[in-house]
From TrEMBL:
The active site is at D147. Catalyzes the formation of acetyl phosphate from acetate and ATP. Can also catalyze the reverse reaction. Keywords: ATP-binding, Cytoplasm, Kinase, Magnesium, Metal-binding, Nucleotide-binding, Transferase. InterPro entries: Ac/propionate_kinase, Aliphatic_acid_kin_short-chain, Aliphatic_acid_kinase_CS, ATPase_NBD. One of its GO terms (biological process) is acetyl-CoA biosynthetic process. Mg(2+) binds at N8, E383. Substrate binds at R90. Its EC number is 2.7.2.1. This is Acetate kinase. Pathway: Metabolic intermediate biosynthesis; acetyl-CoA biosynthesis; acetyl-CoA from acetate: step 1/2. It comes from Ligilactobacillus salitolerans.
Amino acid sequence: MEKLLVINSGSSSLKFKLLVMPEEKELADGLVDRIGINGSQINIKYGDGQKFVSDEEIKDHQVAVDRLTFLLKDLHIVEDLNEITGVGHRVVAGGEYFKHSVVVDDEVIKHIDEISDMAPLHNPANLMGIKAFKEILPNAFAVASFDTAFHQTVPAVNYLYSTPYEWYEKYSVRRYGAHGISHHYVSQQAAETLGKPVEDLKLITCHLGAGSSICAVKDGKSFDISMGFTPLTGVTMATRSGDVDAALLGYMMDKLNITSMDEMLDILNHKSGLLGVSGISSDMRDLLEAEKEGNERASLTIDIFVKNVIKYIGEYIAEMGGVDGIVFTAGIGENSMPVRKRILERLAYLGVTFDEEKNAANYEGVISQPDSKVAVLRLSTNEELMIARDIMKLKAEAENK
Ligand code: ADP
């Protein structure tokens, strides 16, 4: 039995899960929020429904890690930090260098740092987490898992933009995708649920959350992905625009008297998407409520989101020459019965028929009818478990060397 800590360190937050492996049991789940900002808070769920909540000043990631490890002992989630034998870190951008999860060493830290300009908000925060845990748990087996790694199998015909080829050769400009850990996990779960080898399936996995992406998974490998060089593109997201015409940037900079590209990107990243179109909220639940009350812009916003999902599903069916299963996961994909229903109704042309009751109940597994031409699954994603499995795999490999 091993106790493994999985860390998702963002620019102002640090999420964690403590898992027992290989039993795949969750011991604790928590979040340190608003690091370095007024109103920091620590939330930990553990035991049989116990909760710890504390408002306190957390000035940086090092303090967050110190407090978290102190609390793990203080709350008797572990009696000794040495019980934690492995730590896994989710890293957003791995570029072309990282094609799978790796054991953290100085070389790995150097490379994550070198590609930081591809994810300036995320990679430095991920590195802070890696370094802070290296200090406090020096004996734990440390692994980095990359959100881009699963997409390293995407062929050039799908990852290259139609921009000058030298941009790719000299500056690594290409589609990298994101949410790879989630797409990988649910594609494996889907194959298991369908009782078929993933290598024999054409799947489309729809990770629909605050950030959303759609992935074509062919023969168990990522074949195309809606996110691009950065996670800004693809379908409409909570506050991210998804695909826009690049010429719009110059045009709107003129109109709005904006001289900085960072300011423009901030609008596309934080003031667009569901929030920007609706003018109401970035949360799908609020939009569904507003629609019920007759708000037409909320309704239009949801329709645009649904249209984008349908568009990518259609594109990936065409690219793969068919599809065996469509998977819904993440915040909206797992929990929003009405949004799934709207998407599925528009897939009737494929011969998709779905079970209204299972869809309404957020059933874990297959929600299509037995006669459906394409299987539809609603599956809970579990990125932390995927990372913990990678730690176990790499640890076993290292011990057998
Ligand atoms: P993150 O990308 O932060 O991990 P999540 O996958 O948790 O995001 O998704 C969060 C989003 O999921 C929320 O912003 C909300 O729009 C949506 N969501 C969660 N629950 C529901 C629900 N019951 N109905 C509709 N949307 C939901």
